[in-house]
Design goal:
Elements (H helix, E strand, L loop, with lengths): L1 H19 L4 E5 L8 E5 L2 H62 L11 E5 L5 E6 L15 H16 L3 H14 L6 H14 L3 H14 L6 H13 L4 H14 L4 H11 L2
Antiparallel strand pairs: 1-2, 3-4
Helix pairs in contact: 1-2, 3-4, 4-5, 5-6, 6-7, 7-8, 7-9, 8-9
């Protein structure tokens, strides 16, 4: 735009120069004797008119240029507004799609219960008798129960606290409830082990053996497995089933030869 203005101004100046280039009329006006003659330069009136027209054209061009700039600025603003609105719409659409997907994944599909056909038995006198179903009703599948790990940990800690308080009857009730409510939890093996320990305190040897056996049979890779082997072995050594006790202690020595419990198992066997 600046180059365009300079071009117009140059044209105006050149035009004015061209007009002014017309030879001015020079006249010598005689004056009194011995006075310096006065030279009068008459500029044609057409030159002033041409310069005025050029200036008006230049001003008009400047006004047109300013108008074009305003239109460009308005178009740029509208374009930015359209870009912002398009971006906001895209973000809103993406958010809605994500919400729909999340809802679809979290919601369980509805379970359709099939109703068995009904047969109406006729009595000898022709009246309708009892209504019976020809097939067994279809069981409705229940959604899996979501277990809160914090709640499980709290239940386990409460049972352990009862042992510290020497409330052994309460501890047995709490741990039995724990293994029933959370049979597949990582703390279930610990609960069975502590049940065995509490039963030994009472003493209740049969239930102690049953509790330790749960860990030995069902949790062979658990950290309480060697402890349960040792407790089960030394407990059975004091019963009529001492042979089984010795076998459990030997299994402990074979599977955990470098543990402290293995050394204690060897001492228990040597004392027999």
């Amino acid at each position: 735009m600046r180059n365009y203005q300079c071009l117009i101004l140059s044209a105006a100046l050149c035009g004015s120069t061209f007009v002014l280039a017309e030879a001015p009329v020079v006249e010598s006006v005689p004056t009194a004797e011995k006075a310096t003659p006065v030279t009068v330069v008459r500029v044609p009136a057409s030159n002033d008119q041409a310069i005025g027209e050029l200036l008006m054209q230049f001003q008009q061009l400047q006004m047109d240029l300013a108008s074009l700039r305003g239109q460009v600025e308005e178009l740029s603003y509208e374009l930015n507004q359209l870009r912002t609105e398009s971006k906001d719409r895209y973000i809103d659409l993406d958010r809605r799609i994500s919400e729909v997907r999340s809802t679809a994944q979290n919601s369980a599909p509805p379970t359709v219960t099939q109703i068995a056909p009904i047969a109406i038995e006729q009595t000898p006198d022709g009246d309708a008798g009892l209504i019976s179903s020809t097939t067994d009703p279809v069981a409705i599948e229940q959604p899996p129960l979501v277990i809160d790990p914090a709640m499980v940990q709290e239940a386990y800690n409460q049972a352990k606290d009862l042992i510290r308080q020497k409330d052994y009857t309460g501890a047995i009730t709490a741990f039995n409830g724990f293994v029933k409510d959370y049979p597949n939890d990582t703390l279930t093996a610990n609960a069975w082990y502590w049940l065995g320990e509490v039963y030994l305190v009472l003493p209740d040897v049969d239930n102690a053996v049953r509790s330790f056996s749960e860990v030995v049979k069902n949790y062979p890779k658990h950290q309480k497995h060697p402890d349960s082997l040792y407790r089960l072995g030394v407990t059975l050594l004091k019963t009529d089933n001492a042979a089984s006790g010795r076998q459990y202690l030997k299994t402990l020595i074979q599977r955990y030869p470098d543990s402290q419990l293995s050394a204690r198992a060897e001492q228990a066997l040597a004392a027999q």
